[in-house]
Amino acid sequence: MIIIMLGAPASGKGSVAEILSAEYKIPAISSGDIFRKNISEQTELGIKANEYMTKGQLVPDDITVSMIKARLSESDTKNGMILDGFPRTVKQAEALDQMLEESGKKIDIVVNLETPEDEILQRITNRRICSNPECKAVYNTVLHPSKVEGICDKCGSKLYQRDDDTIEKAKNRLVVYFEQTAPLTEYYKKTGALYSTTLSQKINRMKEEVSKDVIEYLKNK
Length: 221
Ligand code: ADP
Ligand code: ZN
Prior knowledge:
Strand order of the largest sheet: 2-3-1-4-8
Helix content: 40-55%
Number of strands: 8
Radius of gyration: 17 Å
Bound molecules: adenosine-5'-diphosphate, zinc ion
Largest sheet: 5 strands, parallel
Shape: globular
Oligomer: single chain
């Protein structure tokens, strides 16, 4: 099973990916997490990626594509995977198609999360993440706060706010999203893999309902 998660920053891609990962027993691969891990380890890739990420810009396609290529060659992806945050440009989508074609695989579904823009900005600025790399639980100080402020419910580690989750950088990331990533919905509409659905607090349709619908859809496909 190959699942692609599309959607604006903080639209809930990672949360839905986590549920689907447990359901299908395939890894959820977050390009942002891989970059952040490289940044914390000060690798060559991390140093390069950080230049762009701190500005809320996309990391260039060639760097991103070779990073994903390396990750997809790992053995845990042999039964499938969920890609969260990749592709983010048409160039990346074309590169992914080529990689999959070479290994005789194809995308089963592209889950496109549609979330109102005002909610997105709130979700970004209220987002807090567990600093334990084995946990990475995500909270929201308003929608889904931790029981003890600043402390992860699941593992007791400290929560932190991402450098790029400030209002200014978030606005920039949204512009980048609309310019460079949103056109991917057209790209995947043509392939027939696109599944667009709303994830929104306002209508009380959150990760659980969305995931359930995706699983149901895939069953009947
Ligand atoms: P979010 O979905 O909240 O924006 P991510 O963790 O997916 O967060 O991405 C954080 C940042 O990492 C992006 O703003 C971008 O700078 C970089 N990044 C992640 N994935 C990609 C990608 N596929 N192409 C280019 N840059 C990426
Ligand atoms: Zn934790």
